[in-house]
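quick one, 240 residues, struct below
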Amino acid sequence: MKYLKILFLFIALISATFHASAHALWIETTPIGKAGQVHTVKLFFGEYAEGEREPLTNWHSDLKDLELWLTKPDGSKEKLTVNPDSNFLHTSFVPSANGVYILSTAHKLGDLNGDTQLEFLAQTTVSVGKIGDNPETMLSSQELTVFPQSPAKWKVNKPTKLKALHKGGTLTEGFATILSPTGWTKGIPLGADGTVDFIPLWPGTYVIEISHYEKTPGKHKANSYEALWQGATYSIEVAK
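---
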């Protein structure tokens, strides 16, 4: 039992080290859209809470070659063409019907960090017209994800619940880091059911980060690795 506790602590420390040293990838867009109107989307890489958005020339490895996918209310998927700018990638889409549209990306870097493969994941949603209360409408098929338990509008001083999943199962180990638009951050342990609760105190965009590290060998393209680190974000917009 003592050995297992030490092992879990070691893994947590390794994961935290990668989390601290690696920037995050996140999506910014207006959370409410209208059918038939162009909706703009931007992707950034850096440290959100510190206001640090890296220029594309500083993005790790081949991260700027990522693919951004749009999952429509009917379940169909479309790869969106992303275009480069000074310090972000941008694209747009036109919602054709009411419902929840999921924007998601998952990119394994072409270069290893030592013997570890790094993967950056990001997700957010756009709601068009009337939507239901089923949280599954906010969920992508990503291997690692954190998503809201209610698709309702998020408001200041109103409790917000999110859930973390890994490979389709509940993620119960580790932390969810809440990054606020003011620079305030807080790491909150994941509950036994994989959920985390927080109360947003300011309006604006919040980025929620989770990470997962596993000592599992694998291969990506021409690279064989001994471990995989994944960092995932979910962006929400909090109203006054």
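The chain has one domain: 2-239.
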